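Below is one protein, fold included:
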Amino acid sequence: MRFLSQIEEMAMEEGIERGALQTFRDNVLEILEARFEIVPLEVREAINGIGDVSVLRRLLREAIAIPSILDFQQLLAVGEGES
């Protein structure tokens, strides 16, 4: 049985993290598209620029219940201001 070097392990972990980030981004966008049909480019770009899984997880929950895409845009704007 072959053991992974520390560099290989780090690369695998990084790949898994990137995959999780992209999955959350895709899921948030999918829900927004299903609910509101049109998702503005600014919203797409903002979501694709988020690199924190916990933020994306929160946005995923918000996307399910938020009443409008405008409210979601405001939520993103507030989140950007907190960074």
